[in-house]
Specification:
There is one protein chain. Helix content is 35%, strand content 17%. The strands form 3 sheets. A 6-stranded parallel sheet has the order 1-12-3-2-6-7, sandwiched between helices. A 4-stranded parallel sheet has the order 9-8-10-11, with helices on both faces. Helix 2 links the parallel strand 2 and strand 3. The longest helix is centred in the C-terminal third of the chain and has 17 residues.
Length: 361
């Protein structure tokens, strides 16, 4: 990871949170697991939110990831410099936006490996809630831990597969903690960017590993947010997977992008690809600028191909491409929420990251 920060690594084998008092708010339409967390003092998932600190600004930022190869959200949060730390304006100032913050990162790989039922269908709903409970809880396998002041949910989590119930739980808890979904922020950022396009008809691309594409998380979230914004027409989504590894080069992703263009051309789709959601974490040797340059080279090569006196690929991809990184957008939204709520720590000290996992030692 391209960063210098104080790193405390705690390898934990279990997730359990204890408490003894009832939460002050009760809602009859809450998810059963959420009800246990809020009200059932006999449940291992019960969390005593009444003991939550009133001033949560000094608490850590909490991130959990259900993705087997996830770390991009943590890296983006640690390295983020998209804002002026004095004014809050969206302008880099060469100071990390979360400088001085404490960050808890929980990667629940055993949960991620058990997300399929006997029919091979994915269900991450309960895992997402349980991981949230770990972050907002004050207990872990080794004893006490800090509680999170905000939760970033990374992985293929949609509103219907956990995000809405996480938010309902946090709202009922009275803790002041809020939740951000990486997939949701990626889709919101994409749709906001598309508003600036001079064309009306276009397709968008999704480059991700096969598990992410198969989950349908981006497709479902796109439908949800389009409906929320009153947009009835669907936007064609073209998906292309890459081989999931612990690190990715621009060559791997640009090859996936080129394959996407070939398939889009072969399928005879009428609208050009104008934007791509790239759900991938680049290897430390490569930057976003490297990826943008690699994609632009692919575009230039295809758009210059002449076949029978025509340039057929010019109707397949735009001359300029919007590239959206969901993890970056989620980290930016985290900053906005914390700043708006006056919950940035503003410490004059090194950034600290604590890594937790549920894998056995």
């Amino acid at each position: 990871m391209r960063t210098r920060f104080t790193l405390y690594v705690l390898m934990l084998a279990t997730m359990c949170v204890a408490g003894c008092k009832d939460a002050p708010v009760q809602e009859t339409d809450l998810d059963p697991l959420v009800k246990m967390a809020l009200y059932d003092t006999t449940s291992s998932y019960y969390t005593d939110f009444s003991t939550y600190p009133r001033n949560i600004a000094d608490l850590p930022i909490g991130i959990f990831d259900l993705h087997a190869h996830g770390s991009g959200t943590l890296e983006r949060t640690v390295l983020l410099d998209r804002f002026d730390n004095i004014t809050g304006g969206e302008k880099p100032d060469r100071i990390r936006d979360f400088a001085g913050e404490h960050i808890i990162y929980y990667t629940a790989l055993s949960d991620a490996d058990s997300l399929y039922d006997d029919q091979g269908r994915m269900d991450i709903h309960d895992a997402a809630i349980k991981n949230t409970l770990f972050l907002v809880g004050d207990k872990c396998a080794q004893g006490d831990k800090e509680r999170a002041k905000i939760v970033i949910a990374a992985g293929n989590i949609t509103r219907s597969t956990g995000l809405d119930d996480i938010r309902a739980m946090l709202a009922a808890s009275g803790s002041g903690v809020k939740a951000i979904g990486v997939v949701e922020e990626g889709v919101k950022g994409l749709l906001d960017a598309l508003l600036e396009l001079p064309v009306l008809n276009y397709s968008i691309g999704l480059i991700a590993d096969s598990l992410t594409i198969a989950s349908g998380a981006y497709q479902q979230t796109m439908q949800d947010i389009l409906a929320e914004r009153g947009i009835k027409s669907a936007i064609p989504l073209v998906s292309q997977s890459f081989e999931a590894t612990d690190s990715l080069s621009t060559a791997t992703l640009s090859t996936a992008f080129a394959t996407m263009l070939e398939n889009h051309y072969s399928d005879g789709k009428p609208f050009p690809i104008c934007a791509v959601i790239c759900d991938a974490s680049l290897d430390d040797d490569f930057s976003d600028e490297d990826l943008a340059a690699a994609f632009q080279e692919v575009i230039n090569n295809y758009r210059s191909k002449r076949i029978n006196g025509n340039y057929p690929y010019r109707s397949v991809v735009s001359d300029k491409l919007i590239i959206v990184n969901p993890a970056e957008l989620a980290a930016m939204e985290c900053y906005r929420v914390l700043r708006k709520d006056n919950n940035l720590a503003l410490r004059i000290e090194d950034q600290q990251v604590l890594l937790y996992t549920d894998l056995p030692m």
